[in-house]
Write the structure tokens for this entry.
Amino acid sequence: MTFTEQAFLNEATQELLQHNSLPADDISEKTRFFTLATEDGLSGMIGWEIHGNHALLRSLAVPASARGKGYGSLLVAHLEAHICSLNVTELYLLTTTAEAFFTGRNYQVISRSDVPEIMLEASEFTTACPASAIVMKKTLV
């Protein structure tokens, strides 16, 4: 199992986002990704952005053929450890489909009014995700 950091989408990661109905048009120079490769090939990816002293988790995707193997959880844990190493302690996300997954990993549903102003400027909040998306937060220690 290998985690690789990248600052761009290649064909495989672009397709993975598309197959999971996740936005890719708004990806900027702030966006970074970890991919997870296993003996079966690309087994998942997760994106993030740093905004001031906060981080935005975006684009967690696992191919349908690799689901149920814990790869999503491994990617989230890897990202959380990385974010902590950057001395960022708050991780936010928007979701329309994965509330239960993230609740199971100690993320809390919060109101948009509780999101720091600098985070609200991120494209995930302004254009990429619908206003009906659930906002979640985890404080990392």
